[in-house]
Design brief:
Two copies of one chain form a homodimer.
Chain A: H1 4-11, H2 15-23, H3 30-43, H4 49-56, E1 61-66, H5 72-86, E2 91-96, H6 101-113, E3 118-122, H7 128-135, E4 141-144, E5 152-155, H8 158-171, E6 177-181, H9 187-203, E7 213-215, H10 220-233, E8 240-243, H11 246-258, E9 268-272, E10 286-289, H12 292-306, E11 314-317, E12 321-323
Parallel strand pairs in A: 1-2, 1-3, 3-4, 4-5, 5-11, 6-7, 6-8, 8-9, 9-10
Antiparallel strand pairs in A: 10-12
Chain A binds a DNA duplex (16 and 16 nucleotides) through residues 1, 3-5, 13-17, 19-20, 22-23, 25-29, 32, 47-48, 50-57.
DNA sequence: CTGTTAGCGCCTTCAC
DNA sequence: GTGAAGGCGCTAACAG
C-alpha cells in the first residue's frame, strides 16, 4: 500500500507538506502543491482513513442499527439518512439486527469499537438494558420510531394517527371495527397504535369484540391469517378493519379476495404506511403516510448537529397525512 | 476513551498481555486472564478497531456499492449479503450512488481509502472507466448483475429468462407482444432482456411493430406511461406485454385498469422480478423470480473466499424460475 | 512556506 | 507466561 511517506519522497517534500496539501490546512506553495497533486494523480494514492481516524478521532462514518432492511419503511429511512449524510461526506455502516434484541445491544458496542461518529437507531423496543447501554455512550445517538426518555428522538405520531384513522372509519359509518396489530413490546406500533384505536372507539361509545382484535408480525401472510381469524371467529362480523401496517392490510385484502368478500362493501380496510404499492393493490388502500424518508433525513440532520457538541435532548414528532383511497 | 494501556494498568499486567488475552493469541495465565476479563467487564472497554486495522490491515468491513436502496431488489441483495457476512463478523459499509455513474467510481476510491476488506458492486453499467478503476484494485471485488470480463461476477441469466418468458407468452397463444424495457446502457436489464425478447420473437417468425417497444426508467409511473404509449400509438394493438421489471408491469397494469382494459383477456402482462407485491396486485403477476437474496449471499460468499487469496476469475450464473399467475 | 517530531491505540517480535 | 519496544500511516504542534 502507498503511504504518505512515499508520496512525500516522490514529490520531494516532507510528509507534513503532503498532509497539508491533502487537507488544505496551512500554507503550501503552488509549486509544491502541483508536484504533490501530480504524484497523487499518477499513483492513485488514497490516504488511510484508519490512520487518520486514529489521530483525529473522527471517522466520518455513522452507524445505523435497524431491525431489517427488507421492508420499504427501512429502506426509505436509510435512503433519507444517506441523502442527508452524503452531503457532508459521511457514510453509513449498517448493523442489521434481524429483529434480535440481543444483537441490538451488541451492535452498539461494535459501533462504538469502530468509533463511528454517531449512531442512528431504528428502534422496535425500549428495552431497559438497551437504554442503559445507550445512555453510557459518549457519541451522539438519535432514535427513530420509539420514544426513549432523555435522548434525541425522531418520532411518528402513532397515537394520533391511529385515532384519526379510526375516527375516519367511524365517520364513514362503521361501528364494528376490527384491529390487526402487532406485539405490544413494540411500544410505537404495537401499543400506541392499539391504544389510539381503542380510545377512539371508546370516545364514540363503540364496543369492541375480543375476536376483532388480532395480532400478526410484520409480514403479509400474518395479515392474511389475522383476517382469517377475525372473519371466522367473530360472532358479530365487523364491517371494517384497521391494520397497523400496509403489509398486514395487504394480507387481509388477500384473504378477503380469496373468499369473495368485497372490499369496501362488506369489509373496509385501512392501514398505516403508505407504501408505494398501497395504491396498486385492489382496491387501492386507504392509509396514512408517515414520510419515512423524511424521518431518516431528520434523524441524520439532528445527529450531525450533535456531533462535537453536547447532545441536546429533543423530541421531534413528525407529521402524517391520511390518504383516502377506495378500500374504505 | 479507554485504551489498552489503562486496562493493562488496572489489571496489573502489561499491554501485551491484555492484547494476547483479547485475541487469545499466545499464552496468558488463568490468573491474569481473569483479572483482565474482570476489568474489561467493569469498564466496558472495547478495543479501537482503527488502531487494530492500522496494525493488522484488516477491517472486517465490506463496502457495498449500489445504485439505490429504495428498491426491493436492492434490499434483498443487501439482506443476502448481510446474512452471509454477519456470520463471519463482517459488516457492511454502504455506498449509495443514486444511479450517478461518477459516484460509482468515486466510491471505489473512498472504500479503498477506508480499507475495506472487499467490495461488492451492484452494477447498472459496464463503463470502461469504472472497469479500469476496478481492475487496479488490490482488494477483492465481486460484481452483481452485470458481466465484467476478468472479474468475479454473480449474474442473473437475463437473456434466457427473457426468452423463456417471451416463449411462455407465445405458447399461450399470443402473437403480438409488446415490450417495456429500460435504457440499453444497462446491459443486463436494458440490452440482454430486450435481445432475449427479440430473438424469441424472431425464432417464432413473429414480427414486432415499432410502437410495441417502449422504454421506461425503474419506476411504476414510467411503466404506466409506456403502456399508454403502446396502447394509444399502436396501429395493430398487441395482446400481451412483457415488462422488464415488476414495477414497470405494475404501472402498465394500472394504466390498463384505469382504461377498463381487462387483463389478461385484452392484454396479458408478464415481467421479471417476483417482488413480494407481485402476487397481490390485480391480477397477480406472472413474473420471473431471480432470487436476489441468494445473489447477495453468493456474492458475499465469493468475496469472503477471495479475501487473502488471489481472486479467481469466476462467472456464477444464477437460476431463475417462472412464476405463473393470472396476468397471462 | 516547510520540515522535524511526537504520538494516536494496537499487535507482534524478541528477550527474559 | 510476560514485558519492552517498535512501528502501522497519519496529523498537529513547533521551530525554523
Amino acid at each position: 500500500m502507498l503511504t504518505i511517506k512515499e508520496i512525500a519522497e516522490m514529490a520531494n517534500v516532507s510528509r507534513s507538506t503532503v498532509s497539508r496539501a491533502l487537507n488544505n490546512s496551512g500554507y503550501v506553495s503552488e509549486d509544491a502543491m502541483e508536484r504533490i497533486k501530480k504524484v497523487i494523480a499518477e499513483t492513485g494514492y488514497a490516504p488511510s482513513e484508519h490512520a487518520k481516524s486514529l489521530r483525529t478521532k473522527r471517522t466520518k462514518v455513522i452507524g445505523v442499527i435497524l431491525p431489517t432492511i427488507q421492508t420499504e419503511t427501512s429502506s426509505k429511512i436509510v435512503a433519507g439518512i444517506d441523502k442527508e449524510l452524503s452531503t457532508q461526506g459521511y457514510q453509513i455502516l449498517l448493523a442489521n439486527t434481524n429483529l434480535d434484541k440481543a444483537k441490538e445491544i451488541e451492535y452498539v458496542d461494535l459501533l462504538k469499537a469502530r468509533q463511528v461518529d454517531g449512531i442512528i437507531l431504528v428502534a422496535t423496543n425500549t428495552d431497559p438494558l438497551l437504554l442503559k447501554k445507550i445512555k453510557g455512550l459518549t457519541i451522539p445517538i438519535v432514535i427513530i420510531g420509539q420514544e426513549m426518555e432523555g435522548l434525541v428522538n425522531v418520532l411518528y405520531d402513532d397515537y394520533h394517527a391511529s385515532r384519526e384513522l379510526t375516527s375516519f372509519l367511524i365517520e364513514k359509518g362503521h361501528r364494528k371495527i376490527a384491529f390487526i396489530g402487532v406485539d405490544e413490546e413494540d411500544r410505537a406500533v404495537g401499543f400506541l397504535r392499539k391504544k389510539g384505536y381503542k380510545d377512539e372507539m371508546i370516545a364514540h361509545k363503540l364496543s369492541i369484540e375480543p375476536a376483532w382484535i388480532q395480532k400478526g408480525i410484520f409480514d403479509i401472510d400474518s395479515g392474511r391469517q389475522a383476517m382469517d381469524q377475525i372473519w371466522t371467529t367473530s360472532q358479530n362480523k365487523p364491517t371494517a378493519a384497521f391494520a397497523v401496517t400496509d403489509r398486514l392490510a395487504i394480507g387481509a385484502l388477500s384473504f378477503l379476495k380469496d373468499h369473495k368478500i368485497s372490499v369496501p362493501e362488506q369489509m373496509a380496510i385501512a392501514s398505516i404506511g403508505a407504501s408505494e404499492i398501497s395504491q396498486y393493490v385492489d382496491p387501492p388502500l386507504t392509509t396514512i403516510d408517515y414520510q419515512n424518508e423524511k424521518a431518516g433525513k431528520e434523524a441524520a440532520h439532528q445527529l450531525l448537529t450533535n456531533i462535537g457538541t453536547k447532545a441536546a435532548i429533543k423530541k421531534i414528532i413528525l407529521d402524517y397525512r391520511l390518504i383516502i383511497r377506495d378500500s374504505v
